[in-house]
Amino acid sequence: MASTSATRSGGGAGRIRSAATTLFSDNQSLLAEIRKVVMMMKDVGVDLERENESQMVKELEDGVLQLLAASEDCTHLSTAIQSVGNGYQPREEATDFKKLFDDEIAKSKANSSSVPQNHMLLRQFREAVWRVHHAGQPMPGEEQEDLVMTSTQSNILNVNCPLTGKPITELENPVRSLDCRHIYEQNAIMQYIRSKHAHSQCPVAGCPKILVAERVVCDPLLLVEIEEMSLLNKQSARPDVVEDFTATDDEESG
After folding, report:
1. What are the TM regions of this chain, as residue ranges (predicted)?
2. Do 41 and 128 fall into the same domain?
3. How far is CA 124 from the centre of its chain?
4. Do 116 and 25 share a structural domain?
5. Whole-structure pTM over 0.90, yes or no?
6. Residue 234, class by beta-carbon neighbours within 10 Å (0-12 exposed, 13-18 middle, 19+ buried)?
7. CA distance 54 to 129
8. In a domain? residue 247
9. Is residue 184 within 8 Å of 161, Cβ to Cβ?
10. 90-133, pLDDT tens digit by residue?
11. For residue 144, which phi and psi values (nearest 5 degrees)?
């Protein structure tokens, strides 16, 4: 009987982990879509600012802020899904999954210092709109040293693949561990896992996590984060380049 009970317990935990992996992937897809929409809204905001539609730009910015607040909620949900999936153990009494998720979401929020108003994507929206009529001029409040920005890099734990040494922005097929969140080149990490058999500890120095091939994936949000990081790197490398949104005489006459 004890053996049967243990088998059922293990099977239940396995099903929860599998369901959590699916939910996590779906939630990451939603996060990726939110980021894409925000980037599109930035382009629309620039077009509206060119036409001096200030009120519409303000309304669009409010919409961006609402989407980023939703993105924060999705991020906390992703953290909760992972925590429940990794730590769930069936008990004799029925599990209150709603309370379980609510508790994990509350923990995630308590450990987070990010707020939508300081999000990097909101900053990018405001900067793009500002440059339409103020190219080369610092944005108001830019001199505040205590401004805390939420960066894509806060979600990217390693900037180079620990196996190939390549920057993650140059990886052909980047993948990320669902357990430790480190990023690798797919072919290199899969070969590493196969060579280590059951003892494939994450190759990032100091990381104790054991890697499982099925849990090292290219989640939808990863590609978006890498693309954003690449754009940030290009902007940092070319501080002298100022984007000019001023229409030429030919464009105005056309």
Report:
1. none
2. yes
3. 16
4. yes
5. no
6. exposed
7. 10
8. no
9. yes
10. 778 888 888 888 998 998 888 776 777 878 788 889 989 998 99
11. -70, 115
State whether 105 and 58 are in the same domain: yes
Angle at alpha carbon of residue 59, lines to 53 and 62, rounded to 5°: 140
Q: Tokens in use for 206? A: 């100091």
Residue 86 backbone zone (phi > 0: left; psi -120 to 50: alpha; other: beta): alpha
Contact between 127 and 119 (Cβ < 8 Å): no
22 and 126 inside one domain: yes
Domain span at 124: 14-90+97-134
The one-letter amino acid code at 141 reads: G
Angle between the N-to-C axes of helices 97-110 and 54-87, in degrees from 0 to 180, rounded to the nearest 10 = 120
Query: Of 217, 226, 222, 227, which is closest to residue 22 (Cα–Cα)?
Result: 217
Helix (H, G, I), strand (E, B) or coil at 201: strand
Count of CB atoms within 10 A of residue 76's CB? 19
